[in-house]
Structure formats: C-alpha cells, structure tokens
Amino acid sequence: MNGKPMKDPLELLDIASVLTDEEREIQATVARFLADRVRPHIGEWFENAHFARELAPELGKLGVLGMHLEGYGCAGTNAVSYGLACLELEAADSGFRSFVSVQGSLSMFSIWKWGSQEQKQEWLPRLAAGEAIGCFGLTEPDFGSNPSGMRTRAVRDGDDWILNGSKMWITNGGIADVATVWAQTEHGIRGFLVPRGTQGFTTRDIKQKMSLRASITSELYFDNVRLPESARLPLAEGLRGPLSCLNEARFGILFGAVGAARDCIQAAIEYADSRVQFDKPISSFQLTQKKLADMSLSLGNAALLALHLGRLKDQHRIRPEQISVGKLNNVREAIAIARECRTILGANGISLEYSPLRHANNLESVLTYEGTSEMHTLIVGQAITGQVAFR
Ligand code: TGC
Ligand code: FAD
Predict the structure, then answer these.
(1) CA distances from 94 to 213, 283, 329 (A)
(2) pLDDT by residue (tens digit) across 367-383?
(3) Which intervals hold domain Acyl-CoA oxidase/dehydrogenase middle (predicted)?
(4) Which of 126, 281, 297, 391 stands the most exposed, by the fewest C-beta atoms within 10 Å?
(5) Residue 182: is its pLDDT beyond 70?
(6) Ligand 2 centroid vs 247 CA: distance in angstroms?
C-alpha cells in the first residue's frame, strides 16, 4: 500500500511536540517571513552575489536582530527561540542566518556584554531595528584559527588610540555602520567600536566566492585611525572578550545547520516522489529510501542535540565545549546531508532551481567560520583529555 510522502522530515520524531507554544509561534512567524520575502528570490540572489540589504529593517521589525538580548529594543526571547529563528533563516539560506548571527551575536552582543552605557544607548536600538548594520573583525590575513597572534594594534596617543592593521573575511564588513574591531594593545587584546566614515578606515568586498554568495564578506583596513577612549569596549580584556561573542554565534549555527539540512531533505523527498525512472518513482527504490532514512535519522539527532543545548543555555549552564560539540556535529552532518540530497536530484541537483547544492556550498563556509571543524574537534578533545593539542 502506498501513502503520501512526509513533508517535513522532523515530523518523524515529532520534534515540534517538545517546544512551547511561544517557541512554535516564533519559528512559524520567521518561516512565513522567509517564505514570502526570501525564498522566491534566493536562487537569483545567490547567482548574482546579491545581498538584499533592504531586508535589514524588515528583519528588525520581525524581532530577530539581537533577539535573545534583554533591553535596548531587543526582543529578549529565550535561547531556544533564537535557535529556532536561526534554523528557519538557514533553511532559506546560510547567508541570512549569517547576517543575523553577525548582527545579533557578534556585533550587538559585543556591545551588550562589554560596552559602556553610552555605547549601548548609541548603537543597540538602531542595530536591533536594522537601521544600522554591524560587523565583527577578529580574523586577519595571517591569523584565523589562532587569533591570539593578531597584528592589528592600537597604541595610546594622549587620551586617544591610534589603530593600524587589517581584518579579513568579515561578514557585513562593506555595509557596516559600525565595526567591532579586536586589536593588540600594550595590555593585551582589547575591542574598539569603529564607525563607518572614520578617517583611515576603509573596506573592500571579497569577490569570486563560491559559497555564501548572498552575503557580503569584506576586508577591513585601518591606517592610523584615531579613536577616542570612549570607542574602546571598557569591559573586554583579553581573548575572552571576542571568544565569548563566538559562543553566542556558534550556538545559532548549531541550530541553523539543522535548518539547511531539513530544507535539503525536503527537496529530495519531493523530487524523489515525482521523478520517475524504470516506470516507478525513484522514492520507491530501496537505495533512495536508505539515503532518506539515514539522513532523517541524523537530522533528528542533530535537532535533538540542538534542543538539548538550547535548554542548557536557557538554564545558564552551557559550557563552550558543549557548543563545540553542537557546531562540530550539526554542521558536519548538514554538509553530508546536503551532498547526499544532491545525488537524489541527479543532474537537476546542480541547478540553482533546487536548494541542496546551494546549501552544500554555503555549508563549506559554515564548516570553516566560527572555528573550523578541526578547532572544535580539538576543543572537545581538550575537554575530554585535559591536554591542549592546538600548539
Ligand atoms: P586560550 O588560551 O584557550 O584562551 C584565551 C582566553 O579566552 C578564554 N576562552 C574563552 N572564553 C569564552 N568563551 C570561549 N569559548 C573561550 N575559549 C577560551 C580562556 O579562558 C582564556 O581566558 P583568560 O581570561 O584566562 O585569558 O586561547 P588560545 O589562544 O589557545 O585559542 C583557543 C582557540 C583555538 C580555541 C580559539 O582561539 C579559537 O576558538 N579559535 C578559532 C577562531 C574563530 O573561531 N574565529 C572566528 C572568527 S568570527 C567568525 O568566523 C564569524 S563568521 C560569522 C557568520 O558570518 O556567521
Ligand atoms: P587557518 O586558520 O589558516 O586554517 C587552515 C586549515 O588549518 C584549517 O583546516 C584549520 O582547521 C587547520 N588548522 C589550523 N590550526 C590547526 C591546528 N592547531 N591543528 C589542526 N589543524 C589546524 N572572521 C571574522 O572575524 N569575522 C567574520 O565576520 C567572519 N566572517 C566570515 C565569513 C566567511 C564567508 C568566511 C569563509 C570566513 C569568515 N571569517 C570571519 C573568518 C573565519 O572565522 C576563519 O576563516 C576561520 O576562523 C579559519 O581561519 P583561516 O581561514 O585563516 O584558516
């Protein structure tokens, strides 16, 4: 007896049943927005390397920018709701989840956690509304996985600071109104807020990307940029400052990856149901079913892991190495799923008309940024053995 295909592979484990009504409502609202404003255009935006900047105020109105932060115009939701919003954003395209991660978890969080009252009042309400855009400069051309070696340097000149150096691979860099920039000082690493238009601060967008094409990635240059002491994030001292922001963004990614994988499996189920070879839908072949069953198992595991970590975060007892477990596992599983789904679509799988290869290409960046899979393996290895293997 034949039945109807399952539309959402997360239904297999009834994942939605362990969410609260409010969490389900937030997830559905974000999904509706994306279905209306992003999904119809995303293939074209990816092909043309276009970031739809005009959506920033709409995302602000939707409440997803800095949504898990309290005060200053932020929605103040729980961590699971933020994760579910990331899941839906990444189901549409990793570029939109990236935009929201960088705005809320890196730019806004750095100010919210480490900034002065004046800095918070000046920037957070505008960033939450999407009226201003933020970016976060940690990576440099010669220092990616090892940010402690950064060369960008800020030195005192009277009451001011003079900033010199460059940052590389910075999401939103070319369109940001304010950059959170991490630099060495004589007292160690410190963070600075550098507004667009500050003399000596320039940006250049990185072209010819084969991944995250619907997102802007840029280089930042600082040539004798003079900043007042009030531009320094007063509470951030050492590498702990930027790394604490990464915890927030990595948390969003471990949910986001589930969304990208879900979208790929949905596309594959739909395609397998309608594509006929040897006079039968390809969904009726055992090899196709094994692929779909195995992928749905690993999707369910990833979703349950994300939810577990979300509940720990909401109880304020999540540890960085647990976030590494989630990012490492869920991104690794998502990219494997995206590639496998592409095979189910045959030649059509290489067309931008379908999402799996776009997701797979995007996930190449996701595997690398916010700590490469190797770095997260070593963070987990260190937690298990007590031995540091980075150096
Ligand atoms: P280490 O000696 O281990 O630590 C230095 C200080 O930092 C503290 N710390 C943390 N604090 C908060 N959260 C964490 N996750 C932390 N990990 C370490 C640590 O306690 C220490 O504090 P203190 O007060 O004792 O000084 O540092 P290390 O130099 O050995 O490096 C450790 C390592 C390799 C894990 C770290 O540097 C790392 O995570 N590297 C990966 C770099 C990375 O993830 N870069 C991401 C750049 S941003 C980005 O990619 C945005 S993409 C966004 C998008 O578009 O979505
Ligand atoms: P490297 O650190 O040079 O690593 C190269 C390879 O060596 C990797 O496989 C790595 O795992 C491996 N490796 C390095 N050290 C070790 C070791 N000790 N043991 C084993 N293997 C090791 N950065 C920001 O600051 N802000 C942003 O907004 C931002 N956005 C990004 C957007 C995109 C699209 C991309 C692709 C990157 C972005 N990044 C951003 C940069 C990103 O965080 C870095 O690319 C990442 O941290 C890795 O650094 P790297 O590329 O220099 O690689």
Answers:
(1) 9, 28, 17
(2) 999 999 999 999 999 99
(3) 135-225
(4) 391
(5) yes
(6) 16
Find the CATH number of the domain harbouring 23.
Answer: 1.10.540.10
* Last residue within a domain, chosen from 207, 231, 255: 231
- What is the three-class DSSP state of 139? coil
Q: How far apart are CA 300 and CA 306, in angstroms?
A: 10
Asked if 174 and 100 sit in the same domain, the reply is no
ipTM: 0.99
Whether the CB of 371 sits within 6 Å of ligand 1: yes
Average the pLDDT over 124-140 and give the result: 98
Ligand nearest to the CA of 167: 2
Whether residue 188 is contained in a domain is answered as yes
Full residue range of the structural domain in which residue 122 is found: 9-128
145, 151, 152, 154 alpha-carbon torsion, rounded to 10°: 130
Distances (CA, A) of 202 to 164, 173, 194, 197: 12, 10, 11, 8
- Which residue, among 271, 277, 305, has the nearest Cα to 291 in the 3D structure? 271
Cβ atoms 193, 233 nearer than 8 A: yes
Judge whether 3 lies within some domain. Answer: no
Domain identity same for 332 and 245: yes
In angstroms, rounded to a whole number, what is the distance separating the alpha carbons of residues 31 and 12? Answer: 19
The residue to mutate among 368, 379, 380, 391, having the most atoms of ligand 2 within 8 angstroms of its beta carbon, is 368
Q: Across residues 307-318, what is the average pLDDT?
A: 98
Q: Is residue 370 part of a domain?
A: yes
Q: State whether 284 and 378 are in the same domain.
A: yes
Could you give the count of Cα atoms lying within 13 Å of 187 in the half-sphere of its Cβ? 6
pLDDT at 2: 78
Q: What's this model's pTM, rounded to 2 decimal places?
A: 0.98
Question: So what's the pLDDT on residue 1?
Answer: 56
Examine residue 247 and state whether it is found in any structural domain, yes or no. Answer: yes
First and final C-alpha spacing in the chain: 59
Query: Is the C-beta atom of 105 inside 6 A of ligand 2?
Result: no
CB 143 within 8 A of CB 151: yes
